[in-house]
Design brief:
- Helix 7 crosses helix 12 and helix 16 packs antiparallel against helix 17.
- Among the domains are: 96 residues, no CATH class; 54 residues, no CATH class; 128 residues, no CATH class; 33 residues; 73 residues, no CATH class.
- It has a five-stranded mixed beta sheet, covered by helices on one side. The protein has a four-stranded antiparallel beta sheet with strand order 1-4-3-2.
- A hairpin with a 5-residue loop joins strand 2 and strand 3.
- The protein is α/β, with parallel strands linked by helices and 755 residues long.
- The chain contains 25 helices and twelve strands.
- One of its GO terms (molecular function) is guanyl-nucleotide exchange factor activity.
- InterPro entries: cDENN_dom (IPR001194), dDENN_dom (IPR005112), DENN_C (IPR043153), DENN_Domain_GEFs (IPR051696), PPR_rpt (IPR002885), TPR-like_helical_dom_sf (IPR011990), Tripartite_DENN (IPR037516), uDENN_dom (IPR005113).
- This is Putative calmodulin-binding protein crag.
Length: 755
């Protein structure tokens, strides 16, 4: 409602502090999470202006003015904390502690000392110390490491979302968000507004809300509800006492769990959603809703017992009790996310098959969404009964942005690659939920890795008084260290790495380990797995190997030949790193045509490029310089001229050899037909592979590969598979075979003449 000065009767009780959360979106689309506690404190009467006195002169219901001595003046004030990390529960405890401390006369440690201690001395949770236990006088707060998941970071409370809306309204709200409707959340609890709005935006993954998003909007800025575009806005319920929302806005009351939708939008019901996926989601949410209600009841009972008698709160102390509650909460949060993630993967399955890669030189409109994605083909692959839903969803800004992010390199590549794997696993497993999509390693750590930090000591500063009886201005002299002046200046910005090294994502490592465990059960499969991993390791060193070549194109062609050899051996690749690094180098060294060839090889062998690999491919094809049409035509003409010249040279050589050998041929009766054919046969070039030499070369190759070094098989016994085994080392024997063939022909001529 804003900052106000109010006049109260002296007998009126002071309201309790109100905790609220909010989210600030920066110009770079990064989020800053805020937590604040709002309270009232006495306002000195002598500081009132005449205008304020006139406005505050209150009257009783009979219209008679009240005596001034029976009134007190109060002003509302807020203590706010901003962070890039949504530790809302910890922030609430810390802010409430500061509020209570500010009204203590002559505290042992000042408010300023606690603030500087919390902001500058408390370490951030990490893998080595996943939980920080902080002592504050006779209270404590904890900081826990956020789960390392491929999903975007958010300040959502999925338990609050499910508990507040219930399963049916959760589906309805999700439908409104997926079709980008104007949504207004309202409640008298400001912290619930942010929790529910953040949960809704997070559960839409892999989509990201592209329109205005204000989870806690001040009433003075409520004009945003008249914007001619979709939005998600949360306001205090007192908004309806002063204004009337526009007709096209869908209003969601979080206090009464009701949703109002205009008659023009009455077709937006849960029946629009794909029936099978929606039925599965609703069943999962119903069971989770019962778990959440049971957990809330048990947690409230434990808190009441601990408040009445802290020493008899069971065998568990406050630390163990909080650890246990945290594990249960995180388990419920992950299960709710899992249910919605399966739903989104089910309705978007096989969408990657309808992406249109860029296969030619870029033209105007090549980055248009209709050029990047086959909308009609994707629509035809869906059930006709739900085409209305897919039409509404595919015409949204977030779906268009999703196609663009999926087609090119972006800061969301890792999360989108994870969603690609989710669609494949859901499609393979069907409705089975045996294999979890969200496998969070170390999400529920034990308290053995907890770091305990004691309360700050009183500063040895003389002549400086402590905090006053109200939360006034902070005394900078009481800060033991000076904090940063602005948090918003250190927001990190995404910049694609210029390094040619494409590393495996954590999800790819997990998938490779999962596949290796399965293949280790069979010796043959395990051997192929090790060979495929060896090839993958070689490709990881390809950037350094390429730098040693003067001709980068030649090095990339060698790598492509090795990649084809791996494909011919049908070795299982642990991931897409081999293809990804080669495509990345194609973009770095200007080889777009080779990148196109690699992509078609992937499709030929049944490998679907994920978001990371596909982004590097389109980057290489789009940003590299392609050969112009004139140069390509001149290259074709050059090849034709060279081919004709080679044919003429071979024909001229054959005619000259025939004219020189026929007159000298022996006329004796003893000359055989075989010797005559050898005489008429042209001289063999020592370095050329002719049709007459190829069978002998293959036979010699087959003899080398036999166990005894000899073979009695004829030319006709050479199979296609044996022919394909000819290696570069064997081809190096061609000149020597040519020399042996020429010497053998000369000996036959001499023997024929002698006869």
């Amino acid at each position: 409602m804003g900052a106000t000065v109010e006049a109260w009767p002296k007998k009126a009780s002071q309201p309790r502090p109100t905790f609220s959360t909010f989210v600030l979106t920066l110009g770079s689309a990064d989020k800053v999470y805020g937590a604040s506690i709002t309270f009232y404190e006495r306002f000195p009467e002598e500081q009132l202006t005449d205008a304020q006195r006139a406005q505050l002169s209150s009257s009783n219901r009979s219209g008679q003015p009240q005596p001034v001595e029976e009134e007190v003046f109060s002003a509302n004030k807020s203590i706010c904390l901003l962070s890039h990390w949504p530790f809302f529960r910890t922030f609430e405890k810390f802010l409430r502690f500061l509020y209570r401390l500010s009204f203590i006369k002559n505290p042992r440690v000042s408010v300023e000392r606690y603030i500087s201690h919390f902001m500058l001395d408390i370490p951030f949770p990490s893998v080595q110390r996943p939980r920080i236990w902080i002592q504050l006088e006779d209270e404590h707060i904890s900081l826990s490491q956020l789960e390392d998941t491929p999903l975007p970071l958010s300040g959502a409370s999925f338990r609050e979302f499910l508990k507040t809306l219930a399963p049916d309204n959760c589906l309805c709200v999700l439908l409104l968000a997926l079709t980008e409707q104007k949504m207004l959340f309202h409640s008298l609890r400001p912290d619930v507004l942010t929790s529910v709005a953040e949960a809704l935006v997070a559960l839409m993954f892999p989509f990201h809300w592209q329109c205005p998003y204000i989870p806690l909007c001040p009433l003075g800025l409520s004009d945003v509800l008249s914007a001619p575009l979709p939005f998600i806005v949360g306001v205090d319920s007192r908004y309806f006492d002063m204004y009337e929302p526009p007709q096209e806005v869908a209003c969601v009351d979080l206090d009464t769990n009701t949703i109002f939708i205009n008659e023009e939008k009455s077709f937006l019901t849960v029946k629009l959603l794909p029936k099978k996926a929606a039925r599965t989601l609703r069943g999962n949410l119903q069971s989770l809703y019962e778990k959440v209600c049971m957990y809330e009841s048990n947690a409230a009972g434990m808190a009441a017992v601990a408040a009445q008698n802290p020493t008899s709160a069971g065998a568990l102390g406050p630390f163990d009790r909080e650890i246990g509650l945290h594990k249960k909460e995180r388990r419920l949060e992950l299960e709710i996310q899992e249910a919605f993630l399966r739903f989104m993967a089910a309705i978007l399955k096989d969408f990657g098959s309808y992406l249109r890669p860029i296969t030619t030189a870029p033209k105007p409109g090549v980055t248009d969404p209709n050029s990047l994605f086959d909308f009609n083909g994707f629509m035809k692959s869906r059930d006709r009964n739900y085409h209305r839903f897919y039409q509404l969803m595919m015409h949204t800004q977030m779906f268009t942005r999703f196609i663009e992010e999926r087609s090119f390199v972006s800061d969301k590549d890792v999360s989108l690659a994870f969603f690609d794997e989710c669609t494949e696993r859901v499609d393979a497993a069907g409705d089975s939920a045996e294999h979890l999509l969200l496998e969070v390693a170390g999400s529920l750590q034990s308290h053995e890795h907890t770091v305990f930090i004691s309360a700050p000591e009183a500063p040895l500063v003389e002549g400086i008084s402590g905090s006053p009886g109200t939360f006034g201005s902070l005394n900078s002299a009481l800060f033991h260290r000076q904090p940063a002046t602005s948090l918003l200046r250190v927001v990190p910005e995404f910049q694609p790495s210029a390094s040619p090294v494409a590393r495996r994502t954590k999800q790819e490592v997990k998938s490779a380990l999962r596949a290796a465990r399965i293949q280790a059960e069979c010796p043959v499969s395990w051997a192929k797995c090790l060979a495929g991993t060896s090839y993958s390791i070689w490709f990881m060193h390809l950037p350094a190997y390429t730098k040693t070549f003067a001709s980068k194109a030649k090095a990339l062609r060698v790598a492509d030949e090795i990649l084809q050899r791996m494909q011919q051996l049908k070795l299982p690749a642990p991931d897409e790193v081999s293809y990804r690094i080669l495509m990345l180098l194609c973009g770095q060294y200007g080889q777009p045509a080779l990148a196109v060839k690699i992509l078609f090889d992937m499709k030929k062998h049944g490998v679907q490029a994920n978001a990371i690999t596909y982004g590097y491919y389109n980057k290489a094809v789009l940003e590299c310089a392609w050969p112009t049409g004139d140069s390509a035509h001149w290259a074709k003409l050059r090849n034709v001229v060279l081919a004709v010249s080679q044919f003429k040279r071979a024909l001229r050589r054959s005619q000259g050899s025939l004219a020189s050998t026929v007159p000298d041929a022996p006329r004796s009766v003893g000359s055989s037909r075989t010797s005559l054919e050898e005489t008429l046969r042209p001289q063999l070039d020592p370095v050329a592979v002719t049709p007459e030499l190829l069978p002998e070369l293959l036979t010699k190759t087959d003899d080398r590969s036999s166990s005894g070094g000899q073979s009695d098989a004829g030319y006709g016994s050479t199979s296609q598979d044996e022919t394909s085994k000819t290696s570069w080392q064997e081809l190096s024997a061609v000149p020597q075979l040519g020399k042996e063939r020429t010497a053998h022909q000369q000996r036959q001529r001499r023997s024929g003449v002698v006869q």
